[in-house]
Amino acid sequence: MGRLRVGVLASGRGSNLQAIIDSSLAGRIDVEVAVVVSDVADAQALERARSAGIPAVHVPPGRFRTKLTPEAEQRYTEVLEEHRVDVVALAGFMRILHDDFLERYSGRVVNVHPALLPSFPGLHGQKQALDYGVKWSGATVHFVDAGVDTGPIILQAAVPVMDDDSEETLAARILEQEHRIYAEALQLIAEGRLKVDGRVVRTSEGAAGATGGDDA
Ligand code: GAR
Fold it and tell me: 47 alpha carbon to ligand 1 midpoint, in Å?
């Protein structure tokens, strides 16, 4: 099998996108970013894609604030299909996707979230964690289902919350982990090692030697 063709949807800064591009270009993951699509015309994510020679497409979301119109969503699908995308990775994509889209890409849409789900879904996961007073938060990569941040969890990483954290310092600590586990999760998909059993994602053993086991 060739490399996994990933289409990234992003609305903003695109640091997760960049982490995936960097891992891909360095050959650390068997993933190729086939196209980047954004609902925001001047998203930094589109710039990052162009700089890496990756097709970057702005698709206007239509008149809604938090979702895409059916026509816009259809256009997203067309762009992803034009680029023969196997998996759709949401990376700071701030729009909710409808059932039609999710059915077409069933089990093939993933997202990164800046909290340990199911705690603090939705917007501002880092601020929610600070306001609640948890001592640990973190990052989650999960498959996307019809709910908001409710799909089966692929990987999580925890970080401590410090007494003097601001939203920015906590976000930065979490972001480092997002970058690491997003690339790792995509690699698990590329290797065909994930099996979804209801809510539970199970990971099979990798090929001998591939993960640097202790049997050398
Ligand atoms: C990331 O922290 C991501 O987890 C979050 O937006 C940021 C995007 O950063 N996503 C959500 O909150 C989705 N609910 P990036 O554009 O630099 O990757």
Answer: 17
